[in-house]
Amino acid sequence: MIFRNCNILDFEKEGLVLADIRTENGVIKEIKENLSIEDDEVDVGGRIVMPGFCNCYLNLARAKANSFKLSNEEILKKNVLSGVTFSFLEVKNATFLENLDEYDEKMLDEIALNLQKKVFVKVGQSLDELGKLNKLHQKLPSEVLEDFGFLDRNATIIGGNCFEKDELELFSGYNASFILLPNDDARTGRRFLNINILKRLQIPFGIGSGEFAEVDFFAFMRQILSFNSFVMENSSLMSPKEVLLSATTTGAKILGFDGEIKVGGGANFIAINRSFGYDNIFKEIVFGKCKRDVFMTVKNGKILQQNGVFAGEI
Fold first, then answer.
1. Nearest 5 degrees, angle CA 73-CA 253-CA 75?
2. For the segment 62-80, what is each residue's pLDDT rounded down to a tens digit?
């Protein structure tokens, strides 16, 4: 398959590069202008081609319960229409742990003995939860994760809204990462994690849709930047480019995938409508676009949806 007339987003050059993309067996084989004609090709029409979004945490069962009993397929279709190419649901060989305040030391010991390659811990979303953990184990929740070996596996913290500076510093020493849930936080009125400290400690974070079916990563990114501007009163804490990286390639890396558009990499990308109202391509994408601007979603070289029409089963 050849995808023609792609304005490929180049994060390093901070601009668009016009080229064609040739894919084969789910891999990008060539990126250059005016590739030779193939029988199987599609004209992207000069739209912006960029890495797909990574939904770093999606809970299908709770999303169904919170969204008028939508089916699994309907929720997954919402993700594809929104430009999601990688998802938490695809992660293999992983340990997932939540409700940590319900586990005593013996139970945590048993879990620690069987830790998988990747460890995800949903924790620290409320002060009440952290208080229960502290009372149960007589130590900080971050120290509980450290003592039982979760941090040795470079654990990914889902939520972590209420962790303070000293605990985040401990996480940074173990190459931990975080998953932010801006939609869940907004709906439940939860305190937002201090991104300023994450950035200063160089702790990477991805973004997830969480426990609700609505997915719009453009809106999620704007929520994060709005938090910086209005709550932290500092719009320079994080740039549109940085939050876009978190929503795409950084998020993919956290889950163990390669989300970059490059020769030899997986053919996973999206095409979004091109129009300019901003003087910066990253501002244009983050502030000027929404999920309705996702024209095409490509996964492993196959078009999952084009202009809202699905090519087959998700």
1. 10
2. 998 887 778 889 999 999 9
